[in-house]
Write a structure and sequence with these properties.
By secondary structure, the protein is α/β, with parallel strands linked by helices. It has two domains: about 20-60, no CATH class; about 65-290, 2-enoyl-CoA Hydratase, Chain A, domain 1, CATH 3.90.226.10. About 35% of the residues lie in helices and about 15% in strands. It has eleven helices and nine strands. The chain has helices spanning about 15, 20-25, 50-55, 70-75, 100-115, 145-165, 180-200, 215-220, 240-250, 260-265, 275-290; strands at about 35-40, 45, 80-85, 120-125, 130-135, 165-175, 205-215, 225-230, 270. A seven-stranded mixed sheet has the order 3-4-5-6-7-8-9, sandwiched between helices. It has a two-stranded antiparallel ribbon with strand order 1-2. A hairpin with a 2-residue loop joins strand 4 and strand 5. The longest helix is centred in the middle third of the chain and has 20 residues, at about 180-200. It starts with 12 loop residues before the first helix and ends in a 7-residue tail after the last helix. The relative contact order is 0.11.
Length: about 300
């Protein structure tokens, strides 16, 4: 028996008796790999378009993390807003490396998140009330607070002051960015001064605490709002529960540092489901503005 040409492409038996099958099978990669998302609570596989329509809230009630663009679109009326550019800052000022250069980590994070840093700013209407909205994107290096995030916060506050409108801040962070050392810690004080500028201008500052809001962000602008809203189940605190337990040598209460527990203790004014946030924000901003006209 003579062997076939080794360079000839082999075909399966099914393709030989039904040539059209091969063409159909080759299209299997047209189906997106991420069409299904696993519910972190129930383990159930959720159809991604349905989850997106539900604003990434699972049937079990888990408010999954969303990126800055999704947050801005779901907050502003009809999803329309004007994006405001965040300021540029010096990169890798300390020439830091923790086994991998900080500059390389920044480039990888930018490629993964599709943005230059953790903050995004938008301007538009929320239930007819004009506002500047600042969103902290946890998908960018855990939403960590660095010089870029600090500059973005100041820029958003001054944009609100210049337009005579409220500032709404959606927080989500693991804390300060260690690769920038003391420079990241300085942003706590700088953002606090920016909040004081808003108060001096008699403009509302409303904070929406999302999962997770921790560390230096909680210790600064996340807790300086006129009103504090939170999404259901959001983790909110400074140090982690295990650190606290090992320090005080006591078992913490059930649900400690979760939004509902903090509302009961007076740290959060109201826990609001994601779908209801635009309506509640519109009511709160309208009340705080007390009928004052805002710039278009």
């Amino acid at each position: 028996m003579v062997d076939k040409n080794p360079n000839e492409k082999r075909v399966g038996w099914l393709s030989r008796i039904a040539p059209g099958v091969r063409k159909i099978v080759s299209r299997r990669n047209d189906t997106p790999d991420n069409l299904w998302v696993k519910d972190p609570d129930s383990g159930e596989m959720l159809y991604r378009p349905d989850l997106e329509a539900a604003l990434w809230v699972t049937p079990s009630g888990r408010h999954m993390r969303i990126n800055a663009e999704q947050r801005l679109k779901s907050t502003f009326d009809k999803g329309r807003y004007a994006a405001i550019e965040t300021p540029d800052v010096p990169e890798d000022p300390l020439k830091f490396s923790d086994g991998k250069p900080y500059r390389d980590r920044l480039n990888a994070a930018r490629k993964a998140a599709g943005r230059k840093d953790a903050m995004a700013i938008g301007y538009g209407e929320i239930q007819g009330v004009y506002a500047v909205v600042l969103v902290q994107d946890f998908s960018f290096m855990g939403g960590s607070l660095g010089t870029a995030a600090g500059e973005a916060f100041i820029a958003a506050a001054r944009e609100a002051i210049g337009r005579g409108v409220p500032l709404v801040c959606f927080t989500a962070a693991g804390g300060a960015r260690m690769q920038e050392g003391a420079l990241s810690l300085m942003q706590m004080a700088r953002s606090t001064l920016a909040v004081n500028e808003l108060k001096a201008a008699r403009l509302p500052y409303v904070v929406v605490l999302t999962d997770p809001t921790t560390g230096g962000v909680t210790a600064s602008y996340a807790m300086l709002g006129d009103i504090h809203l939170a999404e259901p189940g959001a983790l909110i605190g400074f140090a982690g529960a295990r650190v606290i337990e090992s320090t005080i040598r006591e078992k913490l209460p059930e649900g400690f540092q979760r939004a509902e527990y903090l509302q009961a203790k007076g740290m959060v004014d109201r826990v609001v489901a994601r779908a209801d946030l635009p309506k509640v924000l519109g009511q709160v901003l309208g009340m705080l503005m007390d009928g004052r006209r805002t710039a278009a």
